[in-house]
Specification:
- The protein has no helices and 11 strands.
- It is mostly beta strands.
- The protein is globular, with a radius of gyration of 13 Å.
- The strands form 2 sheets. Strands 2, 4, 5, 6, 9, 10 and 11 form a 7-stranded mixed β-sheet that branches. A 4-stranded antiparallel β-sheet has the order 1-3-8-7, with no helix packed on it.
Amino acid sequence: QVQLVESGGGLVQAGDSLRLSCAASGRTISAYTMGWFRQAPGKEREFVATISWSGDPLYAEIVKGRFAISRDNVRYTMYLQMNSLKPEDTAVYYCAAKSGFFPTLPFMRTPGWYDDWGLGTQVTVSS
């Protein structure tokens, strides 16, 4: 099990950028698939992006071209660079982890596939 802590959220205006971080404690993340999900009020948790142990990313269509996921295994940290933010990006953003050396595959869009979750960080985008 790995403990995850998100940071970097905040209140920004439409068109601005934010970089979220997900710091892992307890063990290295080098053998984990890491993902970002988000949940807006009254909505289900939805997939944003995931990155395999080897650095291969997968994005939700609604963020492709605007968001970039990356990882630093030495610092036990994953990032989500969010550019050209829109009001509809407003949500609590969660990071998630799944142990194992998996290639990036479509089922990684499913929240239930991940074993470990952080508590989330709020991102609010004003128009």
